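Troubleshooting: if your tokenizer reports a length mismatch, compare against these two reference records.
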Amino acid sequence: MGKSTEVALAYCAGLIDGEGCISITRTDQRRRDRQNRPWNSKGFRLFLNMAITDDDKPLKYLIGTIGGKTYEHKRRTTTGRKVYSWYLDGNRALRAIKKLKDYLIIKKQEALIGIEFQNHINRVPSNLKYKFNPDLYAERLEMYNRMKKIKRNRAGVETKPSENESSSDSPNLKEILVT
């Protein structure tokens, strides 16, 4: 990987660490199938997203580097500022998170759970994909709850690596820029 690509990914990871969100969303909603029969949709989905006010240039940079979609919200903030959002979901989010994970600091744990989650989704045989399976649901619910717990427990930003993580896990930006 070239220096400019590494710098671009590091910048995108910084945006995600600071303003972005890696999440697993839960959908428990009533729907109708093709024959108009009611059924309950109980599922989960991986999301990578970010919202920003005033200027959408950082979001366009994300699109140019790792893909995704952006849109301007119809509503503005209470102070009248424009709000722009960017997002990726499912396998597109997985590919982006895999590219960024080595550069993430604050949201690295969420990235690892997101990768584990989407890989779990992708391993399901196609004949089970659209059928409700209590065992698969329980496994996904466990990953959803782990992600939720990390987000709840983040009281402040940890500036030094934890016991389980060495500082060499993430490339040093100074080293990238100097070489």
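Reference record two:
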Amino acid sequence: MTRAFGLVCIAISCVGIGFTGSIAEGTIDPLTAVYVANKEGSVSAFTMSRATGALTAVLDSPYPAGTSPQWIAVDPTNTFVYVTNCGSDTCDRAGSVFVYAIDQATGGLSISSARFTDGRGSIFMSIDPSGRFAYVANHGSNTISAFSICG
């Protein structure tokens, strides 16, 4: 299931379910984690109760995510969270992608890497179902950046 919530994007990480969009549902066994891109430059992490849907903030959350995080994607193995950053409040500068490793016990994040895209205003992102490639839509330059994901 995918839905967009205005300026905030949420990704619920999944096991065995490929997804595109700002929300994907599933579980990391035994943890369900929710990640939120905050417009003020961070990513918040929560655990979610499967019984009630209640969210609990993960220790040390939120995590820095550049100037203007826009979109979240979780790889098919639930190992990494990818966050696009459009580069400025107006999304008119060089964009980037932040990569965070997921702590499988807590749902917490630690920065793994970051790199610039080939365009301006990197907003949307999708990871192919094999988890080997990532694609970023650069709104400000009307281009797509393609990346190989090292396993």
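Descriptive notes for reference record two:
- The chain has one domain: 9-148.
- Residues 19 and 129 are 8 Å apart (CA to CA).
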